[in-house]
Structure to design on (190 residues):
């Protein structure tokens, strides 16, 4: 069983936010594989399917980004998923829009959703697909508030064009991970 999680915030108000790129990428992947998010379990919308001879569960936690670990840890226990078989897709401020990076383990780099997952699992040893959203040019005295406003803002129409390309690229990277393994996916997509 492989567990693939896209991070984001639930609700229509957040649907097109930069912070929801994990949801967007996972939803695109699900659509390409004919998997529907037709179940609710462990505080997540989930869909079950089979890809490359392995059962996969796709999940979009409904806890809110900063509490993602509550849902992910429950799913890991419920389905008895090894951390080697956990893939988390999330936004990354430190990568330019359209770039992706695949890695296993490491710190959360300040991403509160990833930090929550690490805390609840008691381990950072899982695969991440980091999707670049770029960083705002912060100039005021409250840079943290500017970053929060940026990640919770919608992509511009121009950025949406790049986003369509990156969601397709992430879908290909997931298939590569499932079919060829971590090293091959890192070599092709990093």
């Amino acid at each position: 069983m492989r567990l693939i999680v896209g991070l984001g915030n639930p609700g229509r108000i957040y649907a097109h936010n930069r912070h929801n790129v994990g949801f967007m990428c996972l939803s695109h992947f699900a659509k390409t594989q004919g998997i529907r998010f037709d179940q609710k379990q462990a505080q997540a919308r989930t869909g079950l399917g089979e890809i490359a001879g392995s059962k996969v569960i796709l999940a979009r936690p409904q806890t809110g980004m900063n509490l993602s670990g509550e849902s992910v840890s429950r799913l890991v226990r419920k389905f008895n998923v090894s951390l080697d078989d956990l893939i988390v897709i999330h936004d990354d401020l430190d990568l330019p829009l359209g770039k992706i990076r695949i890695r296993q383990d490491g710190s959360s780099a300040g991403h509160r959703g990833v930090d929550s997952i690490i805390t609840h699992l008691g381990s950072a040893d899982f695969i991440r697909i980091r999707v670049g959203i770029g960083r705002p040019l912060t100039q005021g005295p409250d840079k943290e508030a500017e970053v929060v406003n940026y990640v919770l803002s919608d992509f511009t129409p121009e950025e949406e064009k790049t986003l369509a390309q990156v969601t397709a690229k992430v879908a290909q990277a997931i298939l590569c991970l499932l079919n060829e393994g971590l090293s091959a996916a890192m070599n092709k997509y990093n």
Observations:
- The helical segments are 21-33, 68-78, 112-121, 143-151, 157-180, 182-189.
